[in-house]
Amino acid sequence: MGAQSHIALLDGAFKANRVLGALSDDAVAQLAPHMMKRSFEKGTPLWSEAQPSGAITFPLSSLVSITWADLLGGGVEVGFAGNDSAVGFSADDVTRGTVHVPGTFLQVRAERFWSLAAEIAELRLMAECCREAMLTQARALAACNALHDVQARLCRWLLQVSDRAGVEITSTQEEIAQLLGVRRTTLTLIAHRLQQDQVIRYRRGLIVVRDRARLRELACGCYREMAEQRPPAERMVPTVTRLWSPPKPDRDVRPPLGSR
Q1: SS3 for 101?
Q2: Terminal CA-CA length for the chain
Q3: Backbone torsions φ then ψ of 82, nearest 5 degrees
Q4: What is the per-residue pLDDT across 30-78, written as a single tens digit (0 to 9) for each?
Q5: Which CATH code of 1.10.3210.10, 2.60.120.10, 3.30.830.10, 2.40.10.10 fits the domain covering 3-236?
Q6: Does pTM top 0.90 for this prediction?
Q7: Of 16, 72, 176, 198, whose CB has the highest number of CB atoms within 10 Å?
């Protein structure tokens, strides 16, 4: 397949990721021939403390969870990325990147990306903006975990995931408890109460958000503060009309069931 054909094939995929969509046509023409479209299932590891990432990954219809690894194999969530960002720019030996919501991605080998970035300022800016956003996110989540009760944090997490993946969230209570760094029994009690109040509906492996307005009332202020942070695409192009942002916390956005 020729370079032009490959670029045409990936054109829709580039637009599905907000930071890729913020690139100029020239930058896209340079990057696209080196990109591959991939599909990953839930739980697929993208990197770990033992296996560094060898690729820059751009989620299209999925969500990546970034956790701070512990010695027992678990880890508290310190970040996440949907189609508003990209991951793999920073190499470290203390985090894990795992596909939390299955879907499609674009990937480019990290070595190739940095080779191109040495000549293309837009790619360097993209990497800087994504890393900056992730660092800000990690600081906010650390403060949230230290200051707020479990119910407020769970409601914040449900809102943030549903903003990026729709109202149907494929997660077990055990997985969520681990990501929030709390006991499963505590999270189960809170989830049961939320279901009784018809805020959510759950069965094993699936949570459905039913009442976003009530979730917002119960969530800590971190949800609003993090939603108001400038996304990486806007940081890349500060002088143009806002390209994209997560649904604002004061709007009742209800994606249709099964929309992912």
Answers
A1: strand
A2: 30
A3: -110, -150
A4: 999 999 999 999 999 999 888 888 999 999 989 999 998 776 666 899 9
A5: 2.60.120.10
A6: no
A7: 176
